Amino acid sequence: MPSQHRLAAVLCCPQEEAYFINLEESFRSLIAGTEPLAEPMYVDCANGVGAIKLLQMSPKLAELGLKLELRNKGDGRLNHLCGADYVQKEQVLPAGEA
């Protein structure tokens, strides 16, 4: 399905499973013909709700060769010493990273 049609399907059918399927298909297309990463991808979840969804998606992404290592999964305050704004403004790694 062309990407604009997948996007339209997601927008008009906001069910979570359909969204995950479309993300998986898009990632599969992106990595077609490439080797799996040797190292995991570290993701700063900034103690937000995105961590919950990435935990759900991780097994499917791992099957496709992308192992995620999630950090700041919700044990602290939202964006406290972590998150994109913090890292960009302070020019330091987020909490939990060496």
Structure overview:
- The chain has 98 residues and is mainly alpha-helical.
- It has helices at residues 3-12, 16-31, 50-63, 84-90; strands at 41-44, 68-71.
- The chain has two domains: 1-34; 37-98, no CATH class.
- It has four helices and two strands.
- Helix 3 links the parallel strand 1 and strand 2 (68-71).
- Helix 1 runs antiparallel to helix 2 (16-31).
- The mean pLDDT is 86.
Supply the key terms.
98 residues, mainly alpha, two-stranded parallel sheet, 4 helices, globular
Computed over alpha carbons, the radius of gyration is 16 Å
Instruction: Give the biggest sheet.
Output: 2 strands, parallel
What is the helix content? 40-55%
**Roughly what fraction of the amino acids lie in strands?**
5-15%
Summarize the structure.
By secondary structure, the chain is mainly alpha-helical. The protein has helices spanning 3-12, 16-31, 50-63, 84-90, and strands at residues 41-44, 68-71.
List the helices and strands and how they pair.
Elements: H1 3-12, H2 16-31, E1 41-44, H3 50-63, E2 68-71, H4 84-90
Parallel strand pairs: 1-2
Helix pairs in contact: 1-2
